[in-house]
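ok trying this again, last paste got cut off
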Amino acid sequence: MPLTFAAPGDSSRPLHVIEQGELDAWLEGQPDHVRAWVAGSSFTGALGSVLRIPGKDGVPEAALAGYGTAAARARQRFPLAAAATQLAPGTYHIASGLPEGAAETEALGWLLAGYGFSRYRDQTPKVAGLVAPAGVDAARIEVLAAAEALTRDLVNTPAADMGPVALEAAARDLADTHGAEIEVFTGGELLERNFPMIHAVGRAAAEAPRLIDMRWGTDGPALTLVGKGVCFDTGGLNLKPAGSMGLMKKDMGGSANVLGLAHAIMALGLNVRLRVLIPAVENSVASDAFRPQDILSSRKGLTVEINNTDAEGRLVLADALAYAEEAAPDLIVSMATLTGAARVALGPDLAPFYATEDRIAAALEAAAGPAADPVWRMPFHAPYEEMIEPGIADLDNAPKGGMAGSITAALFLRRFVTETPYAHFDIYSWQPSAAPGRSKGGLGQGPRAILGALPALLDL
């Protein structure tokens, strides 16, 4: 079901957004029957509450949506979205009460409240239609909603239906939609073309590993997005326990996020030369699985000692990042569900990122708030470099001790991007429990902040 705004028309009902504590002020100018109806209700403007107001003939003529207090709104990404699923069926337009600065965020949240993952069972929420609020670029918000829905669908799909082959198909579908070019290196071709670590990680799986390379645009600055596409992660020979393996269908969340972001960039027609690189693999157990203590060569020439086969995401990203930099783009951004350490540090809601330049961090931080896509900068802490240097090889994929795991992973990746401005996102890409505008399950984390930062970063 497309997430779109309703067409404006005479049939839409007015929706008044009421902040808690402001109900009496709103009632002062209302007709007697409205004042009497509200007085007989328990509506106070509390966040998430709604009240349908009948006309004199009993047919609903308007509705109120509680907007709560500033403190209550601070706890929700999309405060008004709670009303979308509680209102009577029909179409509404915002008649009063919505702060101008919140209109775009709340409009997006309303559309996202209509998302449901229905591939296996219809889970489409019953959401009232909304006419795009005045001053909102409706087409742009619909693109953002579609991009988020794409990301969620990809992450929510289990590995049986979203392995490397299906992930490639999803990328091809997106390329066909926007007229992008796509090239894929598969199986033994990865070795022939010097992607040894992507091949090593994925060679034990039933579906061959691959590197997906999509390109779009002929003018403007060059932007390369690299997304981790580990379609399922058993941990390899360092097998995960059952409790840690349960959500590993989402280990391709980095690729899902960059594909969603790529859709937004292309649909909005940004003046960039976009490239998307996705190493798509499954980290499986078989007789030819890579082993602890193996030393792998990388595309960049650096050797890597394998001290944990469950730290595989950085390996496939490393080859892709080295390949990305060979084309000398203006900016490289990688996205990956990379470390549990990032979740320990920031939990599931904040997207941690690393940046090689302060200007990149500043642009991302400035864009995150208006995009309702919170991010938090983490440090490339140079004194920890020695932790990823095992001595027997150039790099260690899993430093002992378990400290600073997200930082050491980011430092590892930075060894493969040495000349190009670079940002890395260590995301969770999963909503643990439902919230307004955010269904339980797959989630985009970081793409809207990145999209909002691109004009500053690439002089668009």
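PB: full thing came through this time. DSSP finds 16 helices and 19 strands in the chain.
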